[in-house]
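User: Good morning. I'm curious how glycyl-adenosine-5'-phosphate would be positioned relative to this chain. Could you predict the structure with it bound?
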Amino acid sequence: MPDAVTMDKIVSLSRRRGFVFPSSEIYGGMGSTFDYGHYGVLMKNNIRERWFEAMVRNRDDIVAIDSAIILHPKVWEASGHVAGFTDPLIDCRTCKLRFRADKLEDSQCGLKPSKHPGETPECDLTEPRRFNLMFETTVGALQEEGSRAYLRPETAQGIFINFKNVLQIARRKPPFGIAQIGKSFRNEITPGNFLFRVREFEQMEMEFFVPPDEAEKWYRYWIDERLNWYRRYGLRDSKLRVREHGPEERSHYSQGTSDIEYEYPIGWGELEGIANRGDFDLTQHAEYSTTKLEYVGQDGERYVPYVIEPAVSIERIMVALLIDAYDEEVVGERERTVLRLHPKMAPVTAAILPLIGKSDDMVAKARSLYEDLRRRHSVEYDDSGAIGRRYRRQDEIGTPWAFTVDEQTLADDTVTVRDRDSLAQERIPIAGVGDWLENALERDWKSPKAN
Ligand code: GAP
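Assistant: Good morning! Here's the predicted structure, ligand included:
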């Protein structure tokens, strides 16, 4: 069966169901900037939680950090961002649009009929010039030389500059890692494709410090670990691949980079990057700060560790999960749209529904079950409208299970469990719902779309 999903359908469902709204809408919108509604927030929390669990909580060799967004401006000189974090920019004097010189074939000219920039006689393009992607700001009341600072374009540098703190205070010895989750900012020339390329995004990065002669081994290790994380949370194998960068494509710091790519409706695109950054960052910061950044063992062994870095944004993962989960099917005579999300990624784990919203007895039982479950799980209570409509609403936000209180519940204290994907229903005792849910969440899960 061909995949029914398009980026437009994801944008529309996200908006309709309150995952993601275009930002500043009442002021006419702010292109490629988004606000997250309730379900978007819950889903982002899940992505963050699953990442943190896999990268920090379940391991002994990685610790967390939360560094400032505005760092000393010298950080960005040392890291190479002031000089080199640029894209080649071209302006069109006729249609006034801006394009990336290296992506003209992916861009649309502002004139009709739409062509690529430079393809119509009216196009009047400037020569390419380097455009730095960092957002500048000033610190303090005065805008003067020395007050210029930047919003961080990656979280990684906040980790490198804390290397010594962690080494000493957390008493770590390579191989060990430092993980950080937080907002990053890039003044992208061509943002777009919904959340795929935005100017403000939440990165999840981990810098893994290793003895130089182990770098290649750990680079391969982290590619496998991260690929398996995506598989575990249900992204289909057929939509995932690893692509190794050629030497000409690598960033200035990289000794090797592989992208985990996902096949978005716009084609294969980078989901996460895993880089072997060598000793570039620690060496640069040591030189610019004149602080020694190296590992010294008790036996006098001394070296600057190499760094392996898996780096991704919550936004890229969210788009991939939504796309992978989106499905349409006809059940009976009716069409339904369903998000077949991994139960641990779905914003709501279970819905609690009285079959008849006007029945005081059913409402009381359902509310009491809801009050009990909400202490441990993300659950939702809904008694408004026909039951079929309530189920369809939960399908569209990807809720894996619904517990329904009906006539029989009042007689024997059992409820039905409806499965989002198979639509199968079973009856279980109301007192066993909590355990049933705990067990169901721990089961291995595979996308029904993979069949
Ligand atoms: N510290 C290395 C680094 O930042 P990157 O390849 O520029 O490397 C890492 O970014 C990840 O951050 C990407 O794989 C992608 O998941 C995410 N990312 C980068 N730019 C983004 C943007 N404009 N919008 C959303 N996510 C972005």
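The CA atoms of residues 9 and 169 lie 49 Å apart. Residues 154, 156, 186, 188, 197-198, 201, 203, 205, 270, 272-273, 309, 311-313, 315-316 surround glycyl-adenosine-5'-phosphate (CB under 6 Å).
Let me know if you'd like a different ligand tried.
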